[in-house]
Design goal:
By secondary structure, the chain is mainly β. The chain contains one helix and 14 strands. It is about 5% helix and about 50% strand. The strands form three sheets. Strands 3, 4, 6, 7, 8, 11 and 12 form a seven-stranded antiparallel sheet that branches. It has a five-stranded antiparallel sheet with strand order 1-14-10-9-5, with no helix packed on it. It has a two-stranded antiparallel ribbon with strand order 2-13. The chain is globular.
Length: about 150
């Protein structure tokens, strides 16, 4: 997937952007994300508190995090299906990892009860403190490549 932003105006502007990738997983409780160990993140569930990821990202409650200064590949380990989903990116220095869990799911109109168990977002983005400034005539390309093994 590729998103190209172009400034057709005569003044610079700053933007944030994301490729909102929703992945179907068998069971979020048995799903992990690797590639973010040691990365700092802003925890949106905890009022944007800053923390550092230790080990794999696991899911036992609502998760909504903006990982900063991340340029590496993330791998979603969908253990029940014995597969890995690789998310490789370019033009991005942040990653969002999100699952609404059961309570937040109730407020999302297009999610049926229990669907949170089978979904995960790992978003290639420029978000939080990672913002892009485009000069007049400038462009920025955000890319995500997704593969399954």
């Amino acid at each position: 997937m590729t998103l190209v932003s172009r400034n057709i105006g005569d003044q610079a502007f700053t933007l944030t952007e994301a490729l909102h990738s929703y992945f179907d997983v068998q069971d979020i409780s048995h799903t992990t994300v690797q590639g973010l160990d040691g990365c700092s993140y802003l925890d949106k569930v905890q009022n944007f508190a800053s923390a550092t990821q230790t080990g794999l990202v696991t899911f036992t409650t609502e998760t909504d995090r903006v990982y900063v200064n991340t340029t590496s590949e993330c791998v979603i380990n969908d253990a029940p299906r014995q597969r890995q989903i690789h998310v490789t990116k370019q033009g991005s220095a942040s990653t969002v990892v999100w699952n609404p869990w059961s309570e937040r799911e109730k407020a999302i109109a297009d999610m049926a009860a229990g669907e949170y168990r089978h979904m995960l977002c790992v978003e290639t983005c420029n978000a939080g403190p990672d913002q892009i400034t485009l000069p007049p005539g400038g462009t920025h390309t955000l890319m995500a490549q997704i593969s399954v093994t």
